[in-house]
Each structure stands twice: as C-alpha cells, then as structure tokens.
Write a structure and sequence with these properties.
The complex is a heterodimer of chains A (about 140) and B (about 525). Chain A has eight helices and no strands. The C terminus of chain A is likely disordered. Chain A has about 140 residues and is an all-alpha fold. Chain A is elongated and about 75 Å long. Chain B has about 525 residues and is α/β, with parallel strands linked by helices. Chain B has a single domain, classed as FAD/NAD(P)-binding domain (3-Layer(bba) Sandwich), CATH 3.50.50. Chain B is about 25% helix and about 15% strand. In chain B, helix 1 packs parallel to helix 13. The mean pLDDT of chain B is about 95. The chains are: A mainly alpha (about 140), B alpha/beta (about 525).
C-alpha cells in the first residue's frame, strides 16, 4: 500500500526505542506494524517522508543513520520520531506499563486552600497603583 | 443607503463582544468572517491518537494549517511566528484561556517607567468592563488577587490548584513570592453554554468537552439569536471609501468566490493585529493605507516573546491531566525593577506538560536532552506525570521597525495580497526573559524539582498580536482615539489588539474583550453624534 520499507523502519525504530527497562522495543510493540497502520490512517502526511527516509536508510547501520538524519534533515527526523513514538504510545500494553491511561475526563475537585493562600494575602498588595501626580522614574511630571 | 447600522469584520473575541453590545442596543449588525465555524468533531482529546492528530486541524500557524480562512504571512524576517485562528471564535479557539487583566502600571508605562507610551485610559476606567465581560465570557478564578487592585472577581470558583500547583504555592510562600489560583476562561461549573471542565488538559487543541470559553460557543449563538447576521467564508478585499472620506462598507468574496458588497453606516475592524492593518493597506490609495496619516498603521508590532521552564519531580503529579489553562499564576516579578537591567516584566502561568509523545519532543525539553536510544524509557518515565511547567509571557516594547506590511507577491486563495512581518526580539526582551527563566528555575527547585529544564527560544510562539494601529489622543502619533475610532475616518473603528499602545506582559484576551465592550458602549452612547455613511 505504500513505499515504506517496514523492515528498514523497524531497524531505525528499535534504535530509537530499544527493548530495555522492562519495556518492549518499538517493533515489539507493533509500532512498525499494525500500529503504524493506525498512525498513517490519521497522519497520512507521514507516509511520504517515511517512504523517503527508509529508502535512503536501506542497508545502513540504524544508529548511525539516525544520527545523520537528526543532524542533516530535521524535518525527516521529526517525521520518523513522530510516527515511531506516536505509534508506540498507541499500544495498550505500553500505556499500561507506563501507567498512562490517556487524557481522561476527571471531575473537578475543589482543593482551594485558604490556609495556603493566607501568606500571600498577609504580604499585602504588590501592584503599582495608577499614578495620580508627582515625580516619575525618569524625572518628569506625572 | 447603508443597509445595516454596523459592519463588523472578524468574528473573534473583539468582534463577538462588539456585536453583542450593539445588537442589545437595537442596532442592525452584520459580521463578515473569512473562516468557518470550528469543527469540534475534529477535536480528538478523548481519543488515543490525540497527541498525534491535535496539531493538524488545530494547528496554530496559518501557514502550516492553510485553512479556508487563512492567508499567507511571510515571517522569514521575524524572530517570532504569528499564530492565530482565522474563523468564528478567532484566537479564543486556540488560546490557553489564561484570563489576565492588565495591571494599572500597564496603562502607564511612560509615567512610571519612562518608556514607550501611556494608554489614553487607566485600569480604573476599564475595570467595570472587565467585570461585565467576565460574566458574559465565563471566567473562573479567586477574587482580590494581591497583584491587582481589589474589586469584583470572576463569576466562577477557580480551577483546582492540583498537586503541582500546591507544591509551587508552598515554595512561593517560603520564598515570599506571589502566587494566586489561576484565572482562566474555563468553566468550573455549568455556566451558560459551557460545561464544567473535566481536566483533559487539551485546551489548546479544540476543547471537545465544551468547557473552554471560546466566543464561538459563548457569544455567537447569543448574538445570532439577537439578530446579528454572521456570514462565514466571507473574505473582505477592501473597505469602500467615499469621496468625503467616510467608509461605506466593504467589498468581499463570498464562499463561492462571488464578489459582494456590504454597506453599513459604520464599520468596526476586529481582524487582529495583522489582519486589521492588512485591510487598511488594502483599502488606501497606493501603499500608504487607509487611516494612516500618522504613518503608524502596521508599525509597533508586538508579539510577546514566550518562555517555558519545566521542573522534574519524584512525586507523581499526573501532569498530563489538569487545565491548560493555568493552575496558578505568579506576578512576583511583573513590575519594573531597573536594577535587573531591563524594564517591565512578565507573567508566569503553571501548566501541565502533556502525554507521552510530548515527552519526546525537542520543545520544551531541548535537543540536548533527546530521549532516543538506551535512555528512552527511563527519560520518558522521568518526565511523564512527573513534570510541571511555567509558561512565561514577556512584555515586548513597541518599536516602529517591528511591523506588518502588505506582500503583493504572495496572495491568499482569493487573490488578495498576503502580508509580511518583520520582528526583532529586542535586547530588553532578551534580558527580561533571561532573568525570568532563572527566577522560574529557582521557583521549581524550591518546589522540590530535582532537575529543571529551560526550553530553548523558539519562533512558533506569537499568539499575541498587538500594537499595529496605536490608540492615542494625538492624531499625529496614533491611528485611533481612546474609543477606537480612526482619527482620519470618523465612522471607522478598530476594536482588536491592534490598538494597544504597549503590550503588557499578560495574555491579552481579557483586555481585548473589555476594551471592545468599553468602545462598543461608547458607540451606543455617542450614536446621536456619530457621522455615518448615510
């Protein structure tokens, strides 16, 4: 369906997001497979840059290629990291391991704290009032 | 003969407030808006792909977004990119809803600090209009902030302090620094057309929950019921100027590209600090522009340099949730202290930091702190839910070399010339920002942050577009008078942020709205004496 070389992309993606610290790598989480399809479904604009950068990266060493992209082509690097990390964080497993449930609807709690605010009130006003006359800072008359 | 009493150009905050007041007073009002209604079906805040998709339809940069109401802005010679929403709701659609009144000193910078110009009005003159507009708008907060003169506060209680706000508040108490529960145009209870906020912290990318007060929700349905006619996808090409110098309306292109004319007794420009000078340049003879005998149309552009300072905490702050919006604000360093090496100051607002994808971006985290590779998971865990961010709004002083000009080489989709902006971030602004970043760093360290990251300066922060049609009493030195009436064209008014003589260091919507209400009220009061294009 697209010109994205997914095998090459997986190499780059796992160099960006390796398996470590109890977390799966990008490709293990599906960020270059089914989740990439989800990403492209809502971000079709990423398809062409991913095709371009994977074509150029074929056969290269992923970590070095990432460094090169970051230094030489920030726009492609941005597209790569957006697609890979964006897909990675769509994974329900990854979200659960991170303890991130998404942007949830949470009722407002009234945590207003008069005691906490009182020291601010006790220090009194801090604004400069509208001048009504007298000297101004530069010596002129107000 | 004019077929309406009033033509308003632009359906953002100032246009909405103006239309409401003038319709209430019995005037017939039509509003031409170049863009469309925002489509909240495209707000993805409740979806897992929110972070991936939010910057597309809801992009802030019109050059990137290229929506139906957008026009090209050449910012290649500007240190800051202009951000805006060209559609019904205007800037309120994409603002963070920090509702900041200006301070008394903001209206008197010449008198108090010997720089720039005083406004031809005072805080005290504007205060009753702040109170009125806050009720119409739907503002939450806590009254009698010690940084402001005492008086009536907003109609709803404040948003939660949240764990991050409480931490920083305690630290400021120890430091002896100001903080206050954040004033926001965010509903904390059901209020008119608004629902109570549910803390998704997605405010800047289309509030799908209907809690952020945007004028497409709060004003326009009311205005339309009151008889105001709102015509969307109507791009004004030029104002129509009669031989006697009065404006008799506007020529525009409708949604189908057909040329139309709308006549009115008076015309009010509410098209923002770039769109309004653009229209004046398009409407004058030659390149001088209409209403420009002062030569100041398009000049003194102010864009508020913006900074962020982010603290990392051991405590789980669940900092992807909350209001964005501000949980608390601080005006501790707002007023001038010349020993700091600059004049004027900045306002700070404490904000969430977003979901996991946001933790991987170069802003605000800095390219030198990139997460990629072996440290990825550790770094994401350090940031996600464990960070809080001060957003810093810096006052920039007006300079005539910072300006908007017409760009005939780069027209919009209808063939109407685009604009070019020139803006240099001044030495005063740079010194001001450096000082404030350091103080914000101290604030977060005192709050228990084990690390603080100062974001690099980036261009894409020009939400506040001010100053390009200065207000003043002297026609030689200003474009409009204290009521927003053009000195040169007595039936042409400007009610948007263009008229600000100085920029303050505050998010501007509160003052844009209050000033529009005050100026609209004056149109009503002075209607018997108003010269019109009859």
């Amino acid at each position: 369906m697209s010109g994205i070389d997914r095998e090459t992309l997986a190499g780059l993606a796992d160099a960006l997001i390796p398996e470590a610290d109890g977390m799966p790598s990008a490709s293990q989480a599906g960020a270059t497979g089914a989740l990439l399809d989800e990403v492209l479904a809502v971000r079709g604009d990423l398809e062409e840059p991913l095709a371009q950068l994977t074509a150029a990266a074929r056969g290269t060493e992923p970590a070095a290629e990432i460094k090169r992209l970051e230094a030489e082509d920030p726009a492609l690097f941005e597209a790569l990291t957006t697609a890979v990390a964006g897909g990675y964080f769509l994974s329900a497993d990854v979200r659960e391991r991170l303890g991130y449930p998404g942007q949830q609807a949470k009722r407002l709690e009234d945590d207003f704290d008069q005691e906490l605010l009182q020291p601010v009130i006790d220090r009194g006003p801090i604004f400069r009032p509208t001048p009504t006359g007298g000297q101004r800072n530069d010596g002129g008359q107000v | 003969m004019p077929d309406r009493d009033v033509l308003i150009i632009g359906a953002g905050p100032s246009g909405a407030v103006t239309a409401k007041r003038l319709a209430e007073a019995g005037m017939s009002v039509v509003c031409l808006e170049q863009g469309d209604w925002p489509d909240y079906e495209r707000a993805r805040s409740a979806h897992p792909d929110f972070e991936l998709t939010s910057g597309q339809y809801w992009a802030w940069d019109p050059n990137a977004r290229q929506g139906p109401g957008d026009y090209p802005i050449d910012d290649s010679d500007s240190d800051i990119t202009a951000l805006m929403w060209n559609g019904v709701g205007g800037g309120s659609v994409v603002y963070a809803a920090h509702w900041q009144r200006n301070l008394p000193s903001d209206f008197r910078v010449r008198a108090l600090d010997g720089v720039a110009d005083d406004w031809p009005l005072t805080y005290e003159e504007l205060e009753p209009y702040y109170v009125r507009v806050e009720k119409d708008w739907g503002v939450s907060g806590y009254p009698n902030d010690t940084a402001f003169p005492p008086g009536e506060g907003p109609p709803m209680p404040p948003v939660p302090l949240s764990p991050m706000g409480r931490r920083v508040a305690r630290a400021h108490n120890e430091l002896g620094w100001h903080w206050w529960p954040g004033p926001n145009a965010i509903a904390t209870q059901r209020y008119g057309a608004l629902n109570a906020c549910v803390q998704r912290a997605t405010c800047l990318w289309g509030c799908a929950d209907g809690a952020k007060a945007t004028v497409d929700r709060t004003y326009w349905p009311v205005n339309q019921r009151a008889g105001v006619e709102l015509r969307i996808r109507s791009r004004v090409r030029r104002l129509l100027v009669r031989g006697d110098g009065l404006v008799e309306g506007a020529e525009y292109l409708d949604a189908d590209g057909n040329e139309q004319v709308q006549r009115a007794a008076i015309t009010v420009l509410c098209a923002n600090g770039i769109g309004t000078p653009r229209l004046l340049f398009l409407s004058g003879e030659g390149d001088d522009g209409l209403a420009n005998s002062s030569g100041l149309v398009g000049k003194r552009l102010m864009l508020h340099p913006f900074g962020t300072v982010t603290g990392l905490f051991d405590e789980d702050l669940e900092s992807w949730q909350g209001v964005w919006g501000q949980h608390i604000h601080s005006l501790e360093f707002y007023e001038t202290d010349e020993s700091r090496g600059f004049v004027r100051g900045a306002k700070w607002g404490l904000q969430p930091t977003g979901g996991p994808l946001s933790m991987t971006r170069s802003y605000p985290w800095g390219e030198e702190n990139a997460v990629w590779g072996e440290s990825f998971h550790r770094e994401v865990r350090r940031r996600l839910g464990h960070s809080a961010m001060w957003g810093i709004i810096a006052e920039d002083l007006p300079e005539e070399s910072n300006r908007v000009t017409l760009d005939r080489t780069n027209p919009d989709a209808s063939g109407i010339p685009g604009v070019k902006i020139d803006y240099v971030n001044s030495e005063n602004s740079q010194n001001l920002m450096a000082f404030h970043r350091e103080r914000a760093r101290e604030s977060l360290l005192a709050a228990g942050a084990y690390d603080v990251i100062i974001a690099p300066f980036i261009e894409a922060t020009g939400w506040h577009i001010l100053g390009t049609c200065k207000m003043g009493d002297d026609p030689a030195d200003s474009v409009v008078d204290r009521w927003g009436r053009c000195h040169d064209v007595p039936n042409l008014f400007i009610f948007d942020g263009s008229v600000w003589p100085t920029s303050s260091g505050m998010n501007p919507t509160a003052t844009i709205a209050a000033l529009a209400l005050r100026s609209a009220e004056h149109i009503v009061e002075a209607r018997r004496d108003q010269q019109v294009a009859a």
